[in-house]
TrEMBL record:
Gene Ontology MF terms in the entry: mRNA cap binding; translation initiation factor activity
Protein name: Eukaryotic translation initiation factor 3 subunit D
Domain comment as written in the entry: The RNA gate region regulates mRNA cap recognition to prevent promiscuous mRNA-binding before assembly of eif3d into the full eukaryotic translation initiation factor 3 (eIF-3) complex.
Complexes and interactors: Component of the eukaryotic translation initiation factor 3 (eIF-3) complex.
The family this protein is said to belong to: Belongs to the eIF-3 subunit D family.
Keyword RNA-binding in record: yes
GO biological process terms held by the UniProt record: cap-dependent translational initiation; formation of cytoplasmic translation initiation complex
Annotated function: mRNA cap-binding component of the eukaryotic translation initiation factor 3 (eIF-3) complex, which is involved in protein synthesis of a specialized repertoire of mRNAs and, together with other initiation factors, stimulates binding of mRNA and methionyl-tRNAi to the 40S ribosome. The eIF-3 complex specifically targets and initiates translation of a subset of mRNAs involved in cell proliferation. In the eIF-3 complex, eif3d specifically recognizes and binds the 7-methylguanosine cap of a subset of mRNAs.
Chain intervals for the UniProt region annotation (Disordered): 126-150, 540-580
Length: 580
């Protein structure tokens, strides 16, 4: 066997240190140059120089014209750039001039997906990204933020310029009572001052219980939307009179039992005034040292507001079945029939101390009881209120008093929640939606139940048979709540309620004897107190309303002598001939 000789090249010896000898050593340099391969670049370096990448595979070459020339001193990676020495098919060294545009590695960054969890994962974990890609991501985020901001601004402007919103605001600018030229505005109280009021009252004293109550039929608690029950019609047997016309209150006033007299509906309107949106009014009479809070005939308090606190607009036309006035009449009609239908019809009624005051003899009265209660406001001031109860029931072998009210659904398109689909499975969502649309009405019902010391408040859910039929209704469900617990759910503070009443009473007690009107401003969250003639709101009183733009003006603007003279002349011209 013949072996090929293997010659080992001469390795120069560097006596000064490691590595190839310096170029100054001519003897060793000639030997080293003979062992080097041709056309292989060798970059010498010192220990003070920083070593970069051996080969830059991530450098962007999208704009080679902007890059410094290869090999120049301004190009820091030129000494490690081997791209010009590409290997050809013959395993030889290619000509740099022919393959100057050839690149082994594409320096362009990979495409980035816009969405998906994988991209978020990479964004979170990939910390060693290039500055160029990070800048692109920052710019992309800025563009998305600008788009979102523009989208929000567009939606805000659309809602602001919505024709329905304008219609609702226009419909709300109507006062519940026409302000007369001779009325003098005394006080203007914003609702913002009511939120800070607080007053703690002691437990009230029961003075008298009048009327009679029938038992509640518990079978109505099992009604569901699938087992609905038709709402029946009953004869109008409810007979309510205002405070000053109540014979029992007149008798208590003569006996000097209290200083302030009112009903639970009037007190509830004052206690929940900050939640109100529609305009309402009360008549205040100061007689001697007594103060009577009344409601006038045809007052909005006789009806029930519907969709008062909702943002969805209602039709303006009074003849429309879905207008605010038509829905108020329908709600009052539903509540009256509901309160009579859910009672046990066996002819048994529990009678109390006295019959209902002001009722005609021989006429059948509704199942109602008036509880006259007295609260102590201070050492020399007491308040007597007539509180109403509608039914009684045996709970845990104890007699409990109930209040009966009904919410009505007129069109799911307005409410946003279809009771027939959601009431059985999502009662909480339905109740939350009603608190949003009818928050003031539910708060007043709760306040009345607290004033009457009711053990339970029953709330019925009544809907139309068809959205366009406002005469026929069905009962879908009946729910029961304890007044104190329900007040906590709707954020109704008892101390704040009494603080509002106490502040109004203290303000009215400073007024002189006469008649006054407290009006909720139709367009602003505030109430105003006007001094009115003694014969105001009586049958022979002639009302000539002011223009709407003058009704909302403070009296200071019209306190000039010329303005008063014009007002008096206009009032004289508008009097009937018999009153000249």
């Amino acid at each position: 066997m013949v072996f090929e000789t293997f010659e080992v090249g001469t390795v120069p010896f560097n006596s000064d240190g490691w590595g190839p000898p310096d170029a100054s050593d001519t003897s060793s340099t000639s030997v080293a140059a003979a062992n080097l391969l041709p056309n292989v670049p060798l970059a010498s370096f010192s220990r003070s120089e920083k070593l970069g990448r051996v080969a830059d595979w991530t450098r962007s070459l999208s704009n080679p014209s902007a890059r410094p020339p290869t090999g120049s001193k301004s190009d820091p990676s030129a000494i490690f750039d081997f791209s010009a020495f590409a290997v050809d098919e013959g395993f030889g060294l290619a000509n740099p001039d022919e393959d100057a545009a050839f690149r082994l590695v594409d320096g362009k960054p990979p495409p980035r997906p816009k969405f998906g969890p994988k991209w978020r994962f990479n964004q979170y974990h990939n910390r060693n990204q290039l500055p160029q890609r990070r800048d692109e991501e920052v710019e992309a985020k800025k563009r998305e933020a600008e788009k979102d901001r523009a989208r929000r601004d567009r939606h805000y402007n659309m809602n602001r310029n919505n024709i329905h919103q304008q219609r609702r605001e226009a419909a709300a600018f109507k006062s519940s009572v026409d302000i007369q030229p001779e009325w003098n505005m005394l006080e203007q109280i914003p609702f913002s001052s009511f939120s800070k009021l607080s007053f703690t009252v002691q437990e009230p004293e029961d003075l008298l219980l009048c009327g009679g109550l029938e038992c509640y039929d518990r079978t109505f608690d099992r009604i569901t939307p699938k087992a609905e029950r038709r709402l029946e019609r009953f004869k109008n047997m409810s007979f309510k009179v205002t405070t000053s016309d109540d014979l029992v209150i007149r008798r208590l006033a003569k006996e000097d039992k209290a200083t302030v007299f009112a009903t639970d509906a009037i007190l509830a309107a004052l206690m929940c005034a900050p939640r109100s949106v529609y305009s309402w009014d009360l008549v205040i009479q100061r007689v001697g040292n007594k103060l009577f809070f009344d409601k006038r005939d045809g007052s909005p308090l006789d009806l029930l507001s519907v969709h008062e606190t909702s943002q969805e607009p209602l039709p303006e036309g009074k003849d429309d079945i879905n207008s605010a006035h038509s829905l108020g009449v329908e709600a009052a009609f539903i509540n009256q029939n509901f309160a009579q239908q859910v009672l046990v019809k066996n002819g048994k009624r529990e009678a109390f101390d006295e019959p209902i005051p002001n009722a005609n003899e021989g006429e059948e009265n509704a199942s109602v009881a008036y509880r006259y209660r007295r609260w102590k406001l201070d050492d020399s001031m007491y308040l007597v209120a007539r509180c109403e109860l509608q039914s009684t029931v045996e709970l845990n072998n104890q007699k409990s008093f109930l209040t009966l009210n009904a919410l009505n659904e007129f069109d799911p398109k307005y409410s946003g929640v279809d009771w027939r689909q959601k009431l059985e499975t999502q009662r909480g969502a339905v109740l939350a939606n009603e608190l949003k649309n009818n928050g003031n009405k539910l708060a007043k019902w709760t306040a009345q139940a607290l004033l009457a010391n009711a053990d339970m408040m029953k709330i019925g859910f009544v809907s139309r048979v068809h959205p366009r039929d406002h005469f026929n209704h069905v009962i879908l469900s009946v729910l029961g709540y304890k007044p104190k617990d329900f007040a906590g759910q709707i954020n109704l503070n008892t101390n704040n309620m009494w603080g509002i009443v106490k502040s109004i009473v203290d303000l009215c007690m400073k007024l002189s004897e006469g008649k006054y009107v407290l009006v909720k401003d139709p367009s602003k969250p505030q109430v105003r107190i006007y001094e009115v003639p003694a014969d105001a709101f009586e049958n022979d009183y002639v009302e000539e309303p002011l223009p709407e733009d003058e009704q909302v003006q403070p009296p200071e603007e019209n306190n000039t002598e010329g303005g008063r003279a014009e007002t008096n002349e206009a009032a004289e011209d508008k009097k009937p001939e018999g009153q000249a």
